[in-house]
Design goal:
The complex is a heterodimer of chains A (145) and B (467).
Chain A: E1 8-13, H1 21-32, E2 36-39, H2 46-55, E3 60-65, H3 70-74, H4 77-83, E4 91-95, H5 104-113, E5 118-120, H6 126-136
Parallel strand pairs in A: 1-2, 1-3, 3-4, 4-5
Chain B: E1 3-9, E2 13-20, E3 25-33, H1 40-55, E4 60-67, E5 74-78, H2 82-95, E6 99-104, H3 110-119, E7 123-126, H4 136-146, E8 154-156, H5 160-169, E9 175-177, H6 191-208, H7 212-215, E10 223-224, H8 225-238, E11 249-254, E12 259-264, E13 274-277, E14 284-289, H9 298-305, H10 307-314, H11 318-330, H12 340-361, E15 364-370, E16 373-379, E17 388-392, H13 394-397, H14 402-407, E18 423-428, H15 434-441, H16 445-455, E19 457-463
Parallel strand pairs in B: 1-4, 4-10, 5-6, 5-7, 7-8, 8-9, 11-17, 13-16, 17-18
Antiparallel strand pairs in B: 1-2, 2-3, 11-12, 12-14, 15-16, 18-19
Helix pairs in contact in B: 4-5, 8-15, 9-12, 10-11, 10-12, 15-16
Classes of the chains: A alpha/beta (145), B alpha/beta (467).
Chain lengths: 145, 467
């Protein structure tokens, strides 16, 4: 079968969150970096990420959350992905993902325990996420492997 | 005089409309039973004789026809995710004038195959995956379909990466490769598939349904009736080069077995604080409610609305409603004919049919509180601003309460989330000319537009309470 030219990302802002600016910046940064980006915009439900990832055969799902409710919104996402056949798909999350000022060293393990491959603290530059994606998707390895 | 004959071979009636292109008017209409089992021309001849009684002998410069005879165009569609490519495939089929008799998502199973064999569709539409997206599912489904005897044509309109391979897997079947119905996430591309469906309809279905004998006498190719109606409504809304149309509209056709709903409107969010979710819908959209109809599908109306509601609207007791519904479901050819009870019930049934079908067709709006304040989430079309509603079907024509019934298709405080027209003029297609005008619109759009503006009768203005 033909090999996909570009790695496909599904991105969006989860939950009842309407912060649209960061989402647009990420869309442009990822596209610029050579990814095929399916942008679901704001107020995205877990089911929408999954449906889009199935149809587009996505390589990773990148979730943004900026209003503090990310921890609630992300709960059960990994399990739903498994249930939908997206076995082991890389899940990344970033933004203001928890309420108040919490130490990120404490926050990160909680998201990892939920099945997220990477969690990023507030103020993370898109380049950092892109770097993580390249690593998770083995993009720097010799092509053809 | 330049007389043209327009024919609609319906499932029950063959309806004829004679039009004078020079005077831009209807010369007469007539109907006779459709005779697709024996010789389709038999019914046509009877209808013509009937028509001649009204118009006198006419020389027709052209004859055009559409058909929904012998079950219409029956399609099974399949996609990957229900609300994405399966929905796109469904919308493509409906918009091409087909009846969707089966809809599948994800991987087809052996049980599905048995069901599909029993359904025996006229066309199968295979989709799934955005371009460059998932290929595994559509390939699996192609392999499953390949095990069936090649009794129906298959349109492949999924992920383009897998198209050729699907074609190879399905070798020996009649296969048509088409552009993807959803090439990118959230982008609908249904016209190429619809064009293909029309071509197959002409090439294969017209033959299979015993319409060939009639088709050869026509001046142009036949089309499925719903697709002719959609064309007429689009012309009525948009107008043509020489003259403007009446603007966005909704149309409702309540039949005995199904209820068809059409909307010609963009329907995308009007305000900045509204977030749109789900597939964007086609500007000219058609849906069919297979479980909502005045006789064969009377049970579906009862299920959707409830006996209590029907009793409240009709003024009959719940017990009497049940009795009459039982009776009508057995005696599908009974019309009220002056019987007060039956009239009241039919009116209530039609009202609920309109309400249910329009609510299913229209989009919804939900209010959500976010950190940024109140936000609206819209899915499907917003038809609140639509100012015209065209209704047809026996139960809406043969009653003085047309406007009252049509009101149920409008916005109501009971279902505030349903984005139905807030205030609209009610227009009635009393002599079933829509399909005929759709046929005429390909050849003389201005004449068809003028006739529709003249013949569709304004029945009133409905405004629902705003609350």
């Amino acid at each position: 079968m033909e090999k996909k030219e570009k790695k496909v990302l599904v991105i969006g802002v989860i939950g009842a969150d309407v912060h649209a600016v960061g989402n647009k910046i990420l869309y442009h940064a990822f596209t610029e970096a050579g990814f095929e980006v399916v942008n679901l915009g704001v107020m995205v439900s877990q089911e929408e990420y999954i449906a889009a990832a199935i149809e587009s055969d996505a390589d990773a799902i990148v979730i943004s959350s900026l209003y503090g409710q990310g921890e609630l919104d992300c709960r059960g996402m990994r399990e739903k992905c498994e249930e939908a056949g997206l076995h082991g798909i890389p899940l990344l999350v970033g933004g203001n993902i928890v309420i108040g000022k919490q130490k990120f060293e404490e926050v990160e393990p909680r998201f990892k325990a939920m099945g997220f491959d990477r969690a990023f603290p507030p103020g993370t530059a898109p380049e950092t996420t892109i770097e993580a994606l390249r690593e998770l998707l083995h993009m720097d390895e010799v092509s053809g492997t | 005089m330049n007389a043209v004959l327009l024919i609609d071979f319906g499932s029950t009636y063959t309806k004829l409309t004679a039009v004078d292109l020079d005077a831009q008017q209807v010369l007469g209409t007539a109907a006779a039973y459709t005779t697709v089992q024996t010789d389709i021309n038999e019914g046509l001849r009877k209808g013509l004789a009937e028509l001649e009684k009204k118009t006198g002998k006419l020389e027709y410069s052209a004859k055009y026809a559409c058909s929904s005879a012998a079950g219409g165009l029956r399609m099974v569609a399949c996609g990957l995710v229900p609300e994405l490519t399966s929905e796109a495939a469904r919308l493509a089929s409906l918009g091409a004038g087909a009846k969707v008799v089966g809809l599948y998502s994800y991987q087809l199973t052996e049980d599905d195959l048995e069901e599909i064999t029993r359904t025996a569709p006229d066309i199968f539409l295979l989709s799934g995956g955005t371009d460059g997206g998932n290929t595994a599912n559509i390939l699996h489904n192609a392999r499953m379909l390949a095990t069936l005897p090649p009794t129906f044509p298959i349109i492949v309109a999924g992920n383009r990466t897998a198209a050729r391979e699907c074609g190879r897997i399905l070798e020996g079947h009649e296969v048509y490769l088409c552009e993807n119905v959803m090439p990118k996430f959230g982008v609908l591309n249904i016209e190429p598939t619809q064009k293909q469906i029309r071509e197959i309809f002409l090439k294969r279905i017209v033959e299979a349904k015993g319409l060939r004998q009639a088709a050869v006498q026509m001046s142009d190719e036949m089309m499925p009736t719903p697709s002719a109606v959609l064309k007429a409504l689009k012309l009525l809304a948009d107008g043509c080069e020489e003259e403007g149309g009446v603007g966005d509209l909704v149309a409702v056709d309540v039949g005995g077995a199904t209820t068809d709903i059409y909307s010609i409107a963009d329907g995308m969010p009007e305000k900045m604080n509204t977030v749109y979710k789900g597939l964007p819908e086609p500007y000219a959209k058609r849906t069919v409610e297979g479980d909502i109809g005045m006789r064969y599908s009377i049970r579906g109306i009862v299920e959707a609305a409830g006996v209590k509601k029907l009793s409240a609207v009709s003024g009959l007791t719940p017990e009497r409603v049940e009795e009459l519904v039982s009776y009508l479901s057995q005696h599908t050819d009974v019309v009220p004919n002056g019987d007060e009870e039956l009239e009241a019930l039919d009116q209530a049934l039609a009202s609920m049919a309109v309400q249910t079908a329009v609510a299913r067709h229209a989009g919804t709006m939900e209010e959500t509180y976010t950190m940024m304040g109140l936000t609206y989430v819209q899915s499907g079309k917003n038809l609140m601003h639509v100012k015209k509603i065209v209704v047809t079907g026996g139960s809406l024509i043969h009653t003085k309460k047309t406007e009252k019934i049509a009101e149920y298709g409008m916005y109501s405080a009971e279902q505030p989330a349903s984005l139905r027209p807030r205030a609209a003029d009610v227009w009635v297609d009393r002599s079933y000319i829509l399909a005929a005008m759709g046929l005429l619109s390909s050849h003389d759009p201005l004449c068809a537009l003028h006739i529709m503006k003249k013949e569709l009768e304004k029945h009133g203005h409905s405004e629902q309470e705003n609350s």
